[in-house]
Amino acid sequence: MSALDDLMAHQRETEALAQVLGRLGWDQETVMPRGSAEQRSEEMAALESVLHSRRTDPKVAEWLERAEAELSADDALNGARLHHIRRDHARAVKVPARLAAEIARVTSVAQGRWAEARAAEDVAAFVPVLDEVLTLKREEADAIAAGDAEGTTRDRYDTMLDDYEPGATAAQLDAMFGALRPRLVALRDRVMGAAYQPPELCRDFDEAGQMTLAAEVAGAFGYDFTRGRIDKAVHPFSSGSGDDVRITTRTSVSDPFNCLYSTIHEVGHACYEQGIDPAHRLTPLGRGVSMGVHESQSRIYENQLGRSAAYTGWLHGRMTELFGDLGVDDPDDFHGVVNRVGPGHIRTESDEVQYNLHVLLRFDLEREMVAGRLAPADLEEAWNTRFEADFGVPVPRPSLGCLQDVHWSVGLFGYFPTYTLGNVYAGCLHEALRRDLPDLDTHLAAGDPGPAVRWLNTHVQQYGALRAPRDTIAHACGRTPDEGPLLEYIEAKFARIYKL
Known about the structure:
CATH topology of the largest domain: Neurolysin, domain 3
CATH architecture of the largest domain: Orthogonal Bundle
Helix content: 55-70%
Low-confidence stretches: none
Mean pLDDT: 95
């Protein structure tokens, strides 16, 4: 066997073990007994130790050097594979095995502590373990950032961000987010002050019926149930890749859209993973290239497709069949109900106008925590002050504030900004998709997002991590991604809904 063959065989086993670790995480958040948390943390730490050992094995560096010397200049596929392996290896060797295992153990415990604190509305119970997670993640970032190939030290937060959006920097995102904020705030003010306000649904919806509709819609959006399943979780998520991709959702008797659009959102993530070329499976290319690109799929499924006037017209009829009279007879009014802008506290339930403002709040606060300028003990006060300043309403309880998201408990510092970056990417993809599919609304009005789903698979999903994140979007759209298309789409959509 060549050095490339040896390396890829080693990598295939590493990727398979990483999938097993992900499955343990899925189990922990869905069906694991509450009393199993401590043992599970030890199991996950043990498996993380095995993975870290494989990723830092000296043989990997030897294989890389030989494989790169043997590689032909026109072999883009294997060149991309080696790029990812070298990048992951270079980062992994800087992290002590002790630290990698400890992060896995502590974040497993912290996830359970977060869930308990959230249920009890008790921030103080969560602060000690959050402090521990943050300390470990700082240590990890500092180890990776120190002495890179150019002999310089990277910014700590940029190093964390690189885990989720390779190549992005906080400075770049600051500029993009700075362009988004004023136009979104101005639109929100116009919408909230508009004479016309869409009605609200004022009735209960059977939760079993919601799950029936969620499964139906998931299938229509391309989710393959022979390689996946839907379960309930406190915080909806997608897990896995290739032939085992699982999603979760949640239900609320008074809010069927919570279940429906959480499902469509996670299906977007899942279809990306299920749709990658099988030739890339269990290789470095066999997963989404970044969380920003991943989020572009979930957001375009959820918003530009799922919340479009054409699709909600179909949804109005289908929900009437399932649940009876909705109290909203006109499909246009129903489109307004689905897209209603209101002063909500929960990011995942937010409307498109305000969603990114929720993300920017988290982006700023986590950078302050990572830099040591904001202590976890002061997070609740900082969150509540910033939220009231940004949204004009107080935070009544922690589950609607700093305890609503799971991310920090499991160490995902640097993850939040990729949500808004994904929205930006989705805006660019939607512009290109509409250009290529002029009759898309006819299909959406029949409850069939298939043409759009196939376009996204053809132009984005099948390639997995073959290209860099921004290059993935640019290749699909034929343009360098920026915030312009997203802002134009949101402003036009909500001007129509609110008759501005």
